[in-house]
Amino acid sequence: MSAAETAWWRDAVIYQVYPRSWADGDGDGIGDLPGITSRLPHLAALGVDAVWLSPFYTSPQHDAGYDVADYRDVDPLFGRLEDADALVARAHELGLRVVVDLVPNHTSDEHEWFQAALAAPPGSPERARYIFREGRGDDGSLPPNTLPPNNWQSMFGGTAWERVTEADGSPGQWYLHLFDVTQPDLDWTNPEVGDEMESVLRFWLDRGVDGFRIDVAHGLVKADGLPDGPDDFDATVHPTAWQPMFDQPGVHEVYRRWRRIADEYAATTGQDRLLCAEAWVLPVESLAKYVRPDELHQSFNFAFLMTPWIADELHEAIHEGLAAVAEVGAPQTWVLSNHDVVRHASRLGYPQLPGRLRIEGIGADDPQPDAELGLRRARAATALMLALPGSAYLYQGEELGLPEATQLPDDVRQDPTWERSGHTSRGRDGCRVPMPWTADGPAMGFGPGGTPWLPQPESYRALAVDQQDGVAGSTLELYRTLLRVRRERGLGLGGLRWLDSGPDALTFELTGDHTAPTVVLVNLGETAVPVPDGLVPLVASGPLDDDGRAVPTDTTVWLSPA
Ligand code: NOJ
Ligand code: MG
Question: Which one of 80, 232, 257, 447 is most buried, counting C-beta atoms within 10 A?
Answer without folding.
Answer: 447
